[in-house]
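By way of example, we now present a protein record of this kind:
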Amino acid sequence: MEITQYNSKNIDRDEKSLCNSLKGVMFMANILNVTDDSFDEEVMDEKEVPVLVDFWAAWCGPCKMIAPVLDELAEEYEGKLKVCKVNVDENNVPAKFSVMSIPTLILFKDGQDVERVVGYQTKKELSKIVDAHI
């Protein structure tokens, strides 16, 4: 994979504007953003692998802290675990699962809530939970 480092000398004005608008945005290639419309299909109907769902919000400090941990998990368990995120401010699904604090992470297996943790968790702690269900 080739990585190109950009600076103000080798990008044009439109690219610079795009880069500035994306500052602070984290791209997580292996994590699926799920909405009210896609939750059942992506989480409840998943029968091949367990699904770890992160209920989060953009303003939540601990949610931002756990994001890179979830990205690492998604890469490490690729093919064995699906990792999804649900924005609590934009969806009604969290109420269905009585999510009262964030981040709340719920592990689903065959459409059933099998494990739930609230607050920041280390990669080691989350790996232990996932390993128990794969």
The radius of gyration is 17 Å. The chain has a mean pLDDT of 85. The longest strand covers residues 112-118. Helices lie at 13-21, 39-44, 61-76, 93-96, 123-131.
